[in-house]
Specification:
CATH topology of the largest domain: Helix Hairpins
Oligomer: single chain
Order of helices and strands: HHHHHHEHHEHH
CATH class of the largest domain: Mainly Alpha
Helix content: 55-70%
CATH architecture of the largest domain: Orthogonal Bundle
Largest sheet: 2 strands, antiparallel
Number of helices: 10
Low-confidence stretches: 1-35, 277-283
Distance between the termini: 29 Å
Length: about 400
């Protein structure tokens, strides 16, 4: 599959510094209102007046984060719907296998019961008649030789015992077959219910994916214009503004994570049980066991292409081949470099295993489907949190279970 590069650009190391940490926008509208976007006329009027330009830049940034948040929410919904659809499909497959197995077992029990009944009938006929056509009881009553009488009585007793055993076998097989048919009917009913649920989840996933795709396209269009407006207000370039914004938001995410870790540590100090739970739950990213791969609908899953992109991208941070080797090891451990890697237990997603997944929206609205956007965010996170891929890899290996 051809690798699709991200529209996002990498954050230069110089912009990801603590002084740039800004509060993350809150209470953003669920749906972006295009009428609230600053106009180019507003931008032009603000230029030349430092105070007005700063106020207009704040307005542009707010609009930018609003539209990004809307796309992030829809992409997160698409990711969750896809995972739910996969779970429903797995449940259906399991139920179908169970129903098929029960039907097969019931049919086999039917055949066993039929064979037992047939054998019982044959033995009954043998008990009643001998080979010459005379009734067995008549032969016994008219026997002149005592030895013949004893033989006939012994044969009759043996046949009677065998017949009773076969009758019991037929009865047991019949009850077994009946019970298995009842189980098969219930299993088929469950399978039918799950089939409907799977179809509904699949339709939900398609609908959510379509909604996310529309929102991503709209966000990318407006983001381009908003970054251009920021560049106009600050006499820079759109690329510079995008680098700066990503650096600011990743730094803010990292600061929020640090505060969350501090709160967790305080709670853990008060409870030994909480300390044990906190030790097993990473705060920033989470990969390893439990990773699954949801539907690849719209996702470019190309590990080799993703590594090629990352190899070219690390130069923006001044990292060389030694750091790339550590990065390969790190993301092999986390996701096998698959853009659709999902940790079902934690919700971490993508090549860098962002937790929560929607954090990557600051690198681009297409974070759910585009490996390059995921890599852009991951490199910015590694730079801000650890300074380099090798430092992140060392941390990963120092933790059990592994996380960075």
């Amino acid at each position: 599959m051809r690798f699709t590069p991200s529209r996002g650009v990498l954050v230069a190391a110089a912009v990801v510094v603590g002084a740039l940490v800004a509060p993350v926008a809150t209470a953003l509208p669920a749906t972006a209102d295009t009428q609230q976007y600053p106009s180019w006329q507003d931008v032009q009027r603000a230029k030349g007046n430092e105070q007005a330009a700063a106020a207009e830049a704040t307005k542009v940034q707010s609009a930018l984060r609003s539209v990004q948040a809307d796309a992030a929410a829809k992409s997160q919904a698409a990711l969750e719907a896809s995972a739910a659809s996969d779970r429903a499909a797995a449940d259906l497959a399991s139920a179908t296998q169970a129903a098929t197995s029960l039907r097969s077992q019931a049919d086999s029990a039917d055949r066993t019961a039929a064979r037992a009944r047939e054998r019982a009938g044959q033995l009954a006929a043998t008990l009643y008649r001998d080979g010459s056509g005379n009734a067995m009881t008549t032969r016994i009553a008219t026997a002149d030789d005592p030895r013949q009488l004893l033989y006939q009585l012994g044969a009759m007793d043996q046949l009677s015992t065998t017949w009773e055993g076969v009758l019991d076998e037929a009865s047991v097989a019949g009850h077994t077959a009946s019970a298995l048919h009842d189980q098969a009917e219930r299993a088929e009913s469950e399978r039918t219910t799950l089939a409907r649920a799977a179809e509904e989840r699949s339709a939900d996933a398609r609908s959510a994916s379509d909604a996310a795709a529309r929102s991503v396209a709209d966000t990318q269009q407006h983001s381009d214009e908003l970054y251009a407006q920021l560049a106009e207000l600050r006499d820079t370039t759109a690329e510079t503004e995008q680098r700066y914004e990503l650096g600011v938001q990743v730094a803010a995410q990292k600061a929020a994570q640090q505060r969350a870790r501090e709160r967790a540590a305080a709670a853990a100090a008060a409870s030994a049980a909480a300390a044990a739970a906190a030790a097993s739950t990473p705060a920033a990213t989470s990969g390893g066991s439990g990773t699954s791969y949801p539907s690849t609908d719209g996702v470019a899953v190309d590990p080799a292409g993703a590594q090629a992109y990352a190899r070219g991208a690390i130069g923006s941070y001044g990292w060389g081949g030694d750091q790339f080797s550590c990065l390969v090891s790190l993301w092999n451990q986390e996701s096998s470099w698959r853009a659709n890697a999902l940790n079902a237990s934690s919700g971490a997603y993508g090549i860098p295993q962002s937790l929560p997944a929607s954090k990557m929206a600051v690198a681009g609205a297409d974070w759910r489907t585009n490996a390059a956007t995921q890599i852009d965010w991951g490199l910015a996170y590694i730079h801000d949190a650890y300074g380099s891929p090798c430092a992140a890899w060392n941390h990963e290996m120092s933790e059990n279970p592994h996380w960075y």
